[in-house]
Amino acid sequence: MAALAVSFAMSVLFLIKDRALRARGGPKLLTRVPSLETVDRIGFQALMWGFPLLTIGIVTGMVYNTELHDRLWTWGFKEVFPVLAWGVFAVLLWARFARGVRGRRSAFLSIAGFGLGLLTLFGMVR
């Protein structure tokens, strides 16, 4: 999730800087932020590291859950939300590679996927 958190942060930064550039203003602090292309590239690279690690984590969790409960799937928060997040990230990767989607659409999908991943924490608290 750490690599996906970097992707999330870059997506938020991309949207903030994009909005400031469209408004032709914004805080002076944004002048220190790298270009939109660089922020998008860093977010994508973090996603390329985070997605396989998330996949390994989900598979490992399913194996452990099967050993623990004698069932592959128990419909808990810790199972449903990571798989939903994985689906969003899979769609994002497909969209970037097959359709060339970049920028704002990519940032929104990355934020949505990370949000679903964070919902997994509610399963740990419960």
Characterize the structure shown.
The protein has one domain (2-125). The longest helix is centred in the middle third of the chain and has 34 residues, at 36-69. Helices cover 79% and strands 0% of the residues. The protein is elongated and about 60 Å long. By secondary structure, it is an all-alpha fold. The chain is built from 4 helices and no strands. The model has no long low-confidence stretch (mean pLDDT 87).
Order of SSEs, N→C? HHHH
- Unreliable runs: none
Please state roughly what percent of the residues sit in beta strands, choosing from under 5%, 5-15%, 15-25%, 25-35%, 35-45% or over 45%: under 5%
Span between termini: 20 Å
Q: What's a concise summary of this model?
A:
With 126 residues, the protein is an all-alpha fold. The protein is built from four helices and no strands. It has helices spanning 2-22, 36-69, 77-99, 104-125.
Label this structure with key terms.
single chain, elongated, 0% strand, mainly alpha, 126 residues
What is the fold's blueprint, element by element?
Elements lengths: L1 H21 L13 H34 L7 H23 L4 H22 L1
Helix pairs in contact: 1-2, 1-4, 2-3, 3-4
